[in-house]
Amino acid sequence: MKQKKTIRLLLSLCLTLGLLASLAPGAFAADKRTLSAWAVEEIQRAEGYGLLDVGELKADSDAAAPVMTDWRRPITREGFVRFALSYAAVMNHSERDGFQIAVNALLADYAPDGTLELPFSDDRSQEAIAAHALGIVQGRGDGIFDPDALITRQEAATMLCRAYAACAGASPEAEDAAPFADEAAIAPWALEAVHVLRGRNVLLGMEDGRFEPQGNFTVEQCAACFLRLGEQMPVSFLLDNVPHLFTQEQAVSAVGPTERVQRWDGPLAAFLRRDQGTVIGDTACFLVYADGGIRQLEAAVRTHSYAPRFDSAAFSEDGQTFTYTMTLQTDDYDHSTIAELENGRTPPLFSRAGVYTVAVDVPSGAQRVSYQPLETAPDGQADGE
Hints:
10 helices, 10 strands, 4-stranded antiparallel β-sheet, 2 domains, elongated, single chain, alpha+beta
């Protein structure tokens, strides 16, 4: 009996440590990026602010394309949109996934029958819809977004200014700055944006004083410029003067209809649990802050459909932590491969049976998960002698 209890304790510890390692928001293997020497320190600062919540970047939108880890390479229009939405989310005290849900629910265009109208025929992604709803991207015309196309530096200047205006509530004003050596080569439609960003040291140009308006905008340049927008423009999350796009109640309404959403209110935020449908991934949890910021949380306990109802749930007195417990009565397997179990093979496991306690740090969204195996016999005698 002692040996079996020891095994259960070790299993509990291993599962707890594994869950803790996987639920820190914004985790990314930074050591896998290849950066220019000038970009390293700025990229680290951008990551610290949460501005690099861009997922896995690829050279094109093909699902089979390899992940692009060399950030010295040119960025695509699709990649730029991810950085822009990450920046807009941080400006609105949000993370990107939750912010996109709110933008697409509250700002995107809908047909009279309630269906979402797609702005582009060649990109149906939630990112493209949100970026268009915010006014950051306008497309090539005729409903074309061209997600795999590369961005020139002068195109990037105009899109950076639109991203700032979407968050600041007004377009930035140009300030006096020394002209670039190749100023005459900048297109008239981009000149004002270039001057604005030059005056605020957002776009710095080349070492020889040229701007290179037709040069490709790179991934690391994109990340650095969004950092500089946050650090050096007059409206910034660092100055706490951003006019947030949504109120708390508006953001709550974006999560789903009230009949499908459970809500717990705390002094800093509301915790929402949405159950919708019976397919994989349709149970989701959110933090919606008092200032209208919204954060979708990673699944703390993976299940193939509905997660069990919470056994208990409450905020701490100071509102800094939200803690809930839930019990899985049986092991939960990958629903898509359940046929393997019927054929005598063990399918992938989502979560083991047991009691899970999840403590959510409200300001950051980080989650700590502890696990306790179910006792299988009464009176504390788990398996007999």
